[in-house]
Design goal:
There is one protein chain. The chain is mainly alpha-helical and 630 residues long. Among the domains are: 45 residues; 144 residues. The chain contains 31 helices and five strands. Strands 1, 2, 3, 4 and 5 form a five-stranded mixed sheet that branches. Helix 23 packs antiparallel against helix 24 and helix 26 runs parallel beside helix 29. Belongs to the FAST kinase family. It is found in: Mitochondrion matrix.
């Protein structure tokens, strides 16, 4: 050990003696201090058999020392305003440092960022090819920060995927991934992840390093950018980023909170802990929110189906003063977002309706359709409905048949819900040529459209006696309606069991009754004048498909329909039915039934079977009494 130490010291002193004449006195002092540090390191590390770092440190000092010629080249690169100025540096005989070629390519990509037509001619330029070869030959000497910017620039220049120089830079980046700082990895992910599809190995390794080193993230901008750019590419990485976001969320400003929610909505990730954390800070901190932020937040909550009462109250209240400055597209977007949330704020929706009326000349047909659908979904009718619906008929009437078939059905269905539909609109969507394309389709969207056609046909039959046709033929939709009757809910099961106990005999009631009007009743019973149950099968039932029975109802007999209303059937934080279910209740009453409503919030308060039976008896008595009072 001692012999090795003496030999090492002799080598270091010999190098210092040989180099001493060519350095300035200050440099000599530096060499002495470096030699001393190196000697100490070698003495404490017996495994150091490689040559000492002295020469390397000297070269580093010399490379990093200010050189007027190098500074001049860097200044020319930075101030270049045309690609030609950069390419001329190659032919001027200037001394280019290792990083200068990379800096020139980076500057070229900036200059051509908004000139895609010039990129093709640049790639064919011999000087550009020379520049690529120069970078390729010096790639190992390019610094980390410059290297990641260089790769981004080569992607921006749209080089062919098989370009040797591009592959060389990608390979160099792969070799250095372990040594790159996390900010370099984040920069690569943010700027180049979309271009790495042709290099899946590099992308996979980059995502792996980002995931493994996620604890190194210390700022909100990085985590938000990574969630947006790479979260959808790696599920484990996105989970880590959500954890880091929860850790840093209290530092976020309003724009970062907005970006987090928009990213989650774009990726359809309903991360409840993160949504709760963001909602908490939106409520607790008096952030100034612009109208763009308010619309983005409402859209994100609506897309994810996340309801937070205080947040929605704030969004509606803060958006109300901005309504006069909204465009027709922003009005439609805001109305649609709150409709998805089932959140009806009457002052806000009145303002939106008035905005549409006041700016009728600027409202486009698609935007008006979206506003109309939002109103129908929430069953909202403006106070000045005459002006609003006059505008709707004026704008949509002549153009209805030119709309996409599915949009035609949506518009007419919305008018049916709001009781504003006209015969011409009914005929436009109930013609066989239109509804035939949706019948039998397995697409969920087409099935939803066909269900709306059933509602439209029922409206024509029950609420427009002057309408002469066409209608949907029962042979087409009856099997489809029975097939769509899904799995029974707990409320539906309990309602059936309780009713069976009250009826005593299966012949006195029917369950899951499919009517010719397109609605399925939860249960149906007949009551005589004394309030006793009658056997259903003995009497005529014109509402069934096909109609059954021949014996007319006894005088004074009442036909009752039980309709259960689940939690999703109501507006948020309200006991008002949504448009579709209000339409169902209206149709059932128009078909001659007395409706017995069984809402979830009343049923949940009933604890025993006796209470449930007494509740249904009381509901039936009230329905009959209301009918007699009329």
């Amino acid at each position: 050990m001692a012999a090795r130490l003496v030999k090492r010291c002799a080598c270091l002193l010999r190098e210092a003696t040989l180099l001493a004449p060519v350095v300035a006195p200050v440099g000599r002092l530096r060499l002495a201090s470096v030699a001393h540090r190196t000697l100490t390191f070698s003495a404490t590390c017996p495994s150091s058999h490689f040559p000492g770092p002295l020469s390397g440190l000297v070269e580093k000092e010399q490379l990093s020392a200010p050189c007027p010629e190098h500074q001049e080249v860097e200044r020319l690169i930075e101030k270049a305003t045309r690609p030609e100025e950069l390419l001329e540096l190659l032919s001027d005989g200037r001394c280019l440092q290792e990083s200068h070629a990379a800096l020139m390519l980076i500057q070229l990509s900036r200059l051509l960022s908004d000139k895609p037509e010039d990129r093709a001619s640049l790639v064919q330029d011999a000087r550009f090819q020379q520049l690529l070869h120069l970078v390729d030959s010096q790639i190992s000497a390019v610094w980390h920060g410059t290297l990641v910017k260089l790769l981004r620039s080569l992607y921006a220049l749209a080089l062919p995927a098989a370009c040797r120089e591009l592959r060389s830079v990608e390979q160099e980046v792969r070799w250095r991934l372990r040594r790159l700082k996390y900010r370099h990895l984040a920069f690569l992910a943010e700027s180049s992840a979309t271009h790495m599809r042709e290099s899946p190995e590099l992308l996979a390794e980059l995502l792996l390093h980002l995931e493994r080193r996620w604890t190194e993230i210390n700022d909100g901008r990085t985590v938000v950018a990574l969630m947006a750019k790479t979260g959808h590419l790696s599920e484990p990485l996105m989970n880590r980023l959500e954890d880091k976001c929860l850790e840093l969320v209290e530092r976020f400003g309003p724009d970062e909170l907005r970006k987090v929610l928009v990213t989650l909505a774009a990726q359809n990730r309903r991360s409840v802990p993160l949504l709760r954390a963001v909602s908490y800070h939106l409520v607790q901190k008096p952030f100034p929110l612009t109208k763009g932020m308010l619309l983005d937040l409402a859209y994100s909550y609506g897309k994810l189906g996340f309801h937070q009462t205080q947040v929605l109250q704030r969004l509606a209240a803060d958006l109300l003063p901005h309504v006069p400055s909204l465009t027709s597209g922003e009005v439609a977007r805001g109305a649609k977002s709150f409709a998805l949330l089932k959140w009806l704020s009457p002052p806000l929706f009145e303002a939106l309706a008035q905005h549409v009326v006041d700016r009728a000349h600027t409202v486009t047909v698609p935007h008006l359709c979206n506003v109309l659908l939002a109103f129908a979904h929430l069953n909202f009718r403006p106070e000045r409905e005459d002006k609003f619906f006059s505008l709707v008929n004026e704008k949509l009437g002549p153009k209805l048949r030119s709309l996409h078939p599915a949009l035609q059905v949506d518009v007419v269905w919305a008018l049916c819900v709001l009781q504003q539909v006209q015969g011409e609109a009914l005929r436009a969507v109930l013609c066989p040529e239109l509804h035939a394309r949706f019948l039998g389709s397995e697409s969920p969207k087409d099935q939803s459209t066909f269900q709306k056609l059933l509602h439209i046909s029922a409206t024509a039959q029950l609420e427009h006696p002057e309408y002469t046709g066409p209608l949907l033929p029962a042979s087409d939709w009856a099997p489809w309606l029975l097939a769509c009757d899904g799995k029974a809910t707990p409320l539906q099961k309990e309602l059936r069991d309780t009713l069976r106990g009250l009826l005593g005999s299966p012949s006195r009631g029917s369950f899951a009754v499919a009517t010719q009007y397109g609605w399925v009743l939860d249960a149906e019973v007949l009551l005589d004048t004394d309030g006793q149950f009658l056997p259903l099968r003995d009497f005529v039932a014109p509402h069934l498909t096909p109609p059954s029975g021949t014996q007319p109802l006894p005088p004074g007999a009442k036909r009752l329909a039980f309709l259960r209303w689940e939690f999703p059937n109501f507006s948020s934080r309200s006991r008002d039915l949504l448009g579709r279910f209000a339409l169902a209740r209206r149709h059932v009453r128009a078909a001659g039934f007395l409706v017995v409503d069984v809402p979830y919030y009343e049923w949940l308060e009933l604890k025993s079977e006796w209470q449930k039976g007494a509740y249904l008896k009381d509901k039936m008595r009230k329905a009959v009494a209301e009918e007699l009072a009329k």
